[in-house]
Write a structure and sequence with these properties.
Elements lengths: L1 H6 L2 H25 L5 H4 L2 H20 L7 H18 L7 H27 L4 H20 L1 E6 L2 E6 L17 E5 L13 H20 L1 H11 L1 H6 L4 H24 L12 H14 L4 H17 L7 H15 L2 H22 L1
Antiparallel strand pairs: 1-2, 1-3
């Protein structure tokens, strides 16, 4: 086994170590959680952490590997979350098995997000730089407003959907049969959802995401995608289809975000579309930037630490977000040791001046 590992390519060894690290982390956390050694607040964050890891790794595929700035990644997560919730709630009577419904919901969420990614990607990927970022930002906001207009219910006759543009209709207009249930109440979001997400499902999704992304990056298609990132004109000159490979990376990223959204949505009994706003897209982008563009391990660690940190700083009350911001700045500076030295040298000089002035 050791000989086989040594004979493997350097990139493959790195990938295997990534898989092994995630598996070991899951085993250790699962043991601690089952033994009751994890605080309740930390145990409640396990599923969201898995979701954010998938979001960070998938966005890294767009930003770090493909080289395009997307500010609407939370929009794909939103599509996956609400389509997954609808699928799970509508199938509750016919499929009593929670794990099976969760699997179906995640597949449905991934498919709907993939369709959204394809529709958005066709016009968006013809743009570059700031223009692409602005359009993806607009997409995220449009998705949020569309979901706020949706009223969805389910009964023996199937799904009932109302698109409440003018805001004059209510859930009663669905005319559900006796025993039917309302799934989405417009701006009030999804309420009364059966929470069926689990840490095990989150771990499996993280592993699937890593396998898909790392194998794509190491493949011929991945090399073509990185060639487009490095020099589009040179890549086109050797016959690389720009639209095809850009679409491949973008839709794959959207699909994984949709699956993460379904897992996330089924972890809460109440879910609002405002949860997936611009701030969420920026948060995921922060995970990617702090972890390092194209660095998968960095995305995993950044997503984990920065998801736990705000809750861990809750003891600081009103100062916790200030401390959180300071930590982000220090981590950002920490990516360059010279900048870190300059930063602390500047603080030292100001402290000396203040001391002299006081004297």
């Amino acid at each position: 086994m050791l000989k086989w590992f040594k004979n493997a390519k350097k990139e493959n060894r790195t990938d295997y170590l990534t898989y092994l690290g995630v598996v070991l982390a899951f085993i250790i956390i699962a043991i601690l959680n089952n033994a009751g050694l994890l605080p309740r607040s930390r145990a409640g964050q396990l599923v969201p952490i898995c979701c954010y890891i998938v979001m960070a790794v998938s966005l890294n595929l767009t930003v770090g590997i493909l080289g395009e700035l997307s500010l609407g990644h939370a929009g794909f997560m939103s599509v996956g979350a609400f389509s997954g919730v609808i699928a799970s709630q509508a199938l509750a009577a016919s499929i009593p098995s929670a794990p099976l419904r969760l699997l179906i919901a995640m597949v449905v969420g991934a498919l709907f997000a993939a369709v959204a990614g394809f529709i958005i990607g066709m016009p968006v990927l013809r743009l570059h730089g700031d223009y692409l970022a602005i359009v993806t930002l607009a997409f995220g906001e449009i998705i949020k407003e569309i979901i706020n207009c949706l009223i969805v219910g389910s009964d023996a006759n199937g799904l009932h959907v109302i698109f409440n543009v003018k805001g004059l209709k209510t859930a009663e207009d669905l005319n559900l049969l006796e025993g039917g249930k309302i799934i989405i109440k417009g701006a009030q979001g999804a309420a009364g959802t059966e929470t069926i997400s689990s840490f095990t499902a989150g771990f499996i999704l993280v592993m699937i995401t890593l396998i898909i992304v790392l194998n794509l990056v190491r493949s011929r298609s991945g090399r073509a995608i990185m060639a487009l990132r490095d020099n589009r004109i040179a890549a086109e000159s050797v016959g690389i289809n720009v639209t095809e490979y850009k679409m491949m990376g973008f839709v794959t990223s959207a699909t994984l975000a949709g699956a993460a959204g379904a897992l996330y949505g089924l972890n809460y009994s109440n879910l609002l579309a405002t949860k997936f706003d611009f701030n969420t897209s920026i948060l995921v982008l922060v995970f990617v930037v702090l972890g390092g563009l194209g660095n998968i391990w960095g995305s995993i660690i950044a997503a984990t630490v920065l998801t736990i940190l705000p809750e861990a700083l809750r003891g600081f009350d009103s100062y916790r977000m200030l401390v959180y911001a300071i930590v982000l700045i220090l981590v950002m500076l920490g990516t360059n040791n010279e900048k870190l030295k300059i930063f602390f040298a500047g603080l030292a000089k100001k402290a000396k001046k203040a001391k002299k002035g006081g004297a």
